[in-house]
Design brief:
Number of strands: 10
Structural class: alpha/beta
Largest sheet: 6 strands, mixed
Shape: globular
Number of helices: 11
Order of helices and strands: EEHEEHEEHEEHHHEHEHHHH
Helix content: 40-55%
Radius of gyration: 19 Å
Distance between the termini: 23 Å
Strand content: 15-25%
Length: 263
């Protein structure tokens, strides 16, 4: 396990097959600063392409997951500048949303604005019972960004997403769990340990199968039934040809736990 780096905006820790990314500017409630963005940009590509990393966990240090965008970086409001900043964010956001590797987000404290967007990137979203969620964008006169209208609508449906994104109301962890915005709840003191256990279980799973399942889940909103079933059939062809499937079958026949290697 790599040592922690408390002086950097993004702490990157490798633990077995899991990469843990911790937003680390607690004084600003981990608002997405240029330093945090630079940390994500510098580390995420290699983590996504490293076959030894089979799951990614994202959380925040201190008493918040992420309070949104850093307001200090928003002084330049020229259209070209804003578009450039958005495109820079999309360079790491799109690969994260399209990643074949499972993404777990562990939400401690507040997740607001772009912090809510980041939380919703997770395939599994685990929240502390005292966590709070808020769109934030309407309070500034901005549109929800970092894909939030896309991810939130798919998680909770159009009507609930509209309520959250238009009224700017605060959503408690319990309500978020009830509406399907959050996968699981944990006691605040147990949040990171719970999230790590989930990430480690995913990292030791059948990597090819998980990646194909994520792909099917994404395509389910876009394809006709016929096109989806064709995609599903090809995904199954890929899985049946993997070493992990052979191991899974052998373990089932041998009445033992499979040892998947991610191939």
């Amino acid at each position: 396990m790599d040592g922690l780096q408390p002086d950097v905006s993004l702490i990157v820790e490798r633990s077995g097959g899991v990469a843990i990314l911790t937003l680390n500017e607690p004084k600003s409630l981990n608002a997405i600063s240029p330093g945090i963005k630079a940390g994500i940009e510098a580390n995420l590509p290699s983590l996504l392409h490293d076959p030894a990393i089979r799951a990614i966990l994202i959380t925040g240090s201190g008493r918040a997951f992420c309070a949104g965008g850093d307001i200090r970086a928003m002084d330049d409001r020229a259209a070209v500048s804003v578009r450039d900043r958005m495109e820079r964010s999309y360079r790491w956001l799109a690969p994260l949303l399209n990643a074949g590797k499972p993404i777990v987000t562990a939400v401690n404290g507040v997740a607001a604005g772009a912090g809510l967007s980041l939380a919703m990137v997770g395939d599994v979203v685990i929240a502390a019972r005292d966590a709070k969620f808020k769109a934030g964008f309407p309070g500034l006169g901005a549109v929800a960004d970092l894909g939030l209208a896309y991810t939130l609508t798919r998680a909770v449906g159009h009507v609930r997403a509209s309520d959250i994104l238009l009224t700017n109301r605060e959503v408690t962890a319990e309500e978020a769990f009830a509406m399907g915005m959050v996968s699981r709840l944990a006691e605040p003191a147990d949040l990171v340990a719970t999230a790590r256990a989930v990430a480690e279980a995913l990292a030791s799973g059948p990597t090819v199968s998980l990646a194909m399942t994520k792909r099917l889940l994404r395509r389910a909103y876009d394809l006709s039934l016929e096109a989806f079933l064709e995609e599903e059939g090809m995904a199954q062809v890929v899985c049946f040809g993997s070493e992990d499937f052979a191991e899974g079958v052998a373990a089932f026949r041998g009445k033992r736990k499979p040892e998947f290697r991610g191939r």
